[in-house]
Design goal:
Structural class: mainly beta
CATH architecture of the largest domain: Sandwich
Largest sheet: 4 strands, antiparallel
Number of helices: 0
CATH class of the largest domain: Mainly Beta
Strand order of the largest sheet: 2-1-3-4
Distance between the termini: 22 Å
Strand content: 35-45%
Number of strands: 7
Helix content: under 10%
Radius of gyration: 16 Å
CATH topology of the largest domain: Immunoglobulin-like
Order of helices and strands: EEEEEEE
């Protein structure tokens, strides 16, 4: 969060768009922050392996705004996509993304 937040809320939605987890993080200073989601719903029940959407909303000076979210994932392999003329990264979780979609590479 470039300007920080008076209150940040992390939300997780399943493929049907249903809210399965929400956490009020509280006040945050400006900068990058890392959070981990355990894969459990708000009642502590383990959710099935699936695709989920993670969002963050922030309140700063009484105004609500959507906060940018990045996901950390392990790359299992890299291949050339001749159709798209680009490198594709196969992620450990099974998804494939183009190199153009990657914002940061870190150890």
């Amino acid at each position: 969060m470039q300007d920080g937040a008076d209150m940040l809320t992390m939300s997780v939605y399943n493929q049907n768009g249903e809210l399965v987890f929400r956490q009020n993080v509280g006040e945050l200073e400006p900068g990058e922050h890392r959070f981990a989601w355990s894969g459990q719903d708000s009642d502590g029940n383990q959710l099935p392996v699936d695709t989920y959407q993670i969002t963050a909303s922030a309140i700063k000076d009484g105004r609500m705004q959507i906060a940018p979210v990045s996901i950390l994932e392990t790359v299992s392999s890299v291949s050339w996509n001749p159709a798209g003329q680009q490198l594709d990264l196969q992620l450990l979780g099974g998804d494939t993304v183009s190199l153009a979609e990657i914002q940061t590479i870190a150890e």
